[in-house]
Design goal:
The protein is of the alpha+beta class. The chain has 3 domains: 26-134, Immunoglobulin-like (Sandwich); 156-197; 199-317. It is 47% helix and 21% strand. The strands form 3 sheets. Strands 1, 3, 5, 6 and 7 form a 5-stranded antiparallel beta sheet that branches. It starts with a helix and ends with a helix.
Length: 318
């Protein structure tokens, strides 16, 4: 009876081992290279295939790590799925390589790692060898190219692309030329501005106000432009006459700054009326009566006259 049990156990182990031997492995790596022999500059296809369980993930690897300095990867084709089932996943990657050094060049094994939960399965591909042969030169035939010259065809899109590039270069050159001319004009304007800086502020303001009066912009419907230029003249005058940054201030800030100066109550009302009315025109689309436009210039001239420096009062009285 005991011998029967032993024989049965041995037979069970044999059947189990046979079943395991017949079942294909679910994890393996294969590496092939075609052809195994090339000439300088010719292409070879390095194919790497691996089969792993469908669960988990494969850790990435760099194909250049297994190639020596003599081998060069020309291109890598997209990863291809060969088999995908409940039991296994087979993938393949193909790289086109070449070499410009003759001799035997080894391709080192690729180390794959498949991670599933806490388990890591390490796989290694077989090592390969690529033979690169030098081109035989027959001195009797003279020197010749390894490959014939390949004619390059020009597609319409390529021709159009060069035309667009040329147009872009011309446009950039034109913009640079225009910028240089504008810069020169700005320098000349700045020079004129520096000359005007030497003119007393009240003289410059009166001259600008008279010029604005002659324009009569309000008669052409340019009421907003008229008040913009009017307030700009007054802000420049106040900035230079009282040494405050009037051109960067609001109307309220300008009036507040002037009130802080002694003896200015007599003329602040004139400036306040002009600036507030101009703000209504510029921001509230207010349209004054026709006679108010020229009257605003008269009030601006009166404001400048009342705020002349003491030396100018003395010169006028003299």
């Amino acid at each position: 009876m005991r011998s029967c049990v032993v024989i049965f156990a041995i037979m069970l182990l044999l059947v189990q081992n046979m079943a395991l031997a017949d079942r294909p492995s679910t994890a393996e790596v294969r590496a092939t290279i075609e052809p195994k022999q090339i000439r300088l500059g010719e292409h070879a296809r390095l194919s790497l295939e691996w089969t792993v369980p469908p669960d988990g993930k494969m850790l990435a690897h760099d194909i250049r790590e297994i190639l020596g300095d003599e081998l060069e990867v020309l291109r890598s084709e997209p990863l291809d799925t060969l088999v995908f089932s409940e039991d296994s996943l087979s993938l393949r990657e193909v790289h086109v390589i070449t070499s410009w050094d003759d001799g035997y060049h080894p391709i080192r094994p690729v180390n794959y790692k498949h991670v599933l939960g806490q388990d890591t399965l390490a796989l290694e591909s077989p090592a390969l060898l690529l033979e690169v042969m030098d081109e035989e030169v027959e001195l009797e035939e003279g020197i010749r190219d390894i490959r014939p010259i390949i004619p390059v065809s020009r597609s319409p899109w390529e021709i159009m692309r060069w035309i667009l590039v040329g147009a872009a270069v011309v446009m950039v050159a034109y913009l640079i030329y225009h910028w240089l001319r504008k810069r020169k004009a700005d320098d000349e304007t700045a020079s004129d501005s520096e000359k005007r800086e030497s003119v007393p502020p009240h003289i410059a303001a009166i001259s600008s106000l008279e010029t604005l009066r002659r324009k009569q912009l309000w008669r052409d419907g340019k009421i907003k432009q008229h008040h913009i230029e009017l307030t700009d003249i007054l802000r420049k005058y106040v900035s230079k006459r009282f040494s405050i940054a009037a051109q960067e201030m609001t109307t309220r800030e300008i009036l507040h700054a002037l009130r802080s100066l002694p003896g200015n109550e007599t003329y602040i009302g004139l400036l306040s009326d002009i600036l507030q009315e101009s703000d209504m025109v510029k921001f509230a689309k207010y349209t004054p009566e026709m006679d108010r436009h020229e009257d605003a210039i008269e009030r601006a001239l009166a404001f400048v006259s009342k705020t002349l420096p003491e030396t100018d009062h003395y010169e006028d009285n003299a």
